[in-house]
Recover the amino acids of this structure.
């Protein structure tokens, strides 16, 4: 499976100028890279600028968004102040949407809202990156219940044919932004358990097409080991995606594996 590396810029940087500089640095740094799908997920306000950038960013990196409105609106618009629809993102050239990030769950996003967002994104032909992860690991609990609930809750009642565009990002909450990544051994075990759960829910054929990524303090130093020993198909990267140098190093460390 082709590896996927998604840069989650979160609420950064401050200006369009900075966003273009960052995107341009990534695009230039990855000019000759093959075998990895690189996705930049900036805040909504920078999507258009990056999409229409003068220096071929588009051909090197794909565009992602960090959120989407949950209502499926056939017309692509409606009376929902402050929201952005899946069809609007699609029309702008966005390919994938991050859904259910723990930072959004912490702001009160429920499992049902997340499920509807996954459905809205997939129905519009976007890829949906469903984030799951436990806040703490109880001793003796092999597969944390919260991870199973987030996983199955996010795909409940969604047609199998749509789920071919689903991506799972396993992100233990304590590893996000802490500088303390999970171990490759734990990530390996969790990736296997997540895949097994998907097999059970969807059957082997559908489940085997769903990439499982890891996120949580990934950087250029630990990324290669996660791919080699962690059985993951790529990464969701926060902090290390805010410097083009660091991010390019990370992608390069994985691209040649
Ligand atoms: P981090 O963030 O790489 O800064 O830990 C990952 C994420 O939140 O997706």
């Amino acid at each position: 499976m082709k590896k996927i590396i998604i840069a989650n810029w979160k609420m950064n940087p401050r200006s369009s100028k900075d966003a273009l500089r960052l995107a341009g640095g990534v695009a230039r740094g990855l000019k000759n890279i093959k075998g990895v799908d690189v996705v930049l997920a900036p805040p909504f306000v920078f999507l258009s600028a990056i999409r229409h950038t003068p220096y071929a960013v588009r051909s090197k990196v794909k565009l992602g968004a960090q959120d989407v409105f949950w209502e499926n609106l056939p017309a692509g618009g409606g009376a929902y102040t402050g929201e952005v629809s899946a069809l609007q993102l699609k029309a702008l050239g966005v390919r994938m949407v991050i859904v259910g990030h723990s930072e959004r769950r912490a702001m009160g996003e429920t499992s049902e809202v997340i499920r509807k967002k996954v459905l809205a994104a997939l129905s519009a032909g976007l890829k949906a990156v469903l984030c799951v992860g436990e806040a703490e690991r109880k001793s003796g609990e092999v597969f944390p219940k919260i991870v199973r609930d987030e996983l199955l809750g996010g795909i409940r009642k969604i047609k199998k044919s749509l789920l071919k565009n689903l991506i799972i990002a396993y992100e233990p909450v304590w590893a996000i932004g802490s500088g303390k990544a999970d171990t490759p051994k734990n990530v390996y075990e969790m990736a296997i358990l997540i895949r097994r759960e998907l097999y059970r829910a969807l059957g082997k054929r559908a489940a085997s097409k769903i990439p499982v990524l890891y996120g949580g303090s990934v950087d250029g130093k630990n990324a290669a080991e996660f791919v080699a020993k962690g059985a993951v198909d790529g990464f969701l990267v926060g902090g290390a995606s805010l410097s083009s140098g660091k991010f390019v190093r990370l992608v390069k460390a994985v691209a040649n594996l």
Notes: The pocket of 2-phosphoglycolic acid is lined by residues 8, 171, 176-177, 215-218, 236-240 (CB under 6 Å). The chain has a mean pLDDT of 94.
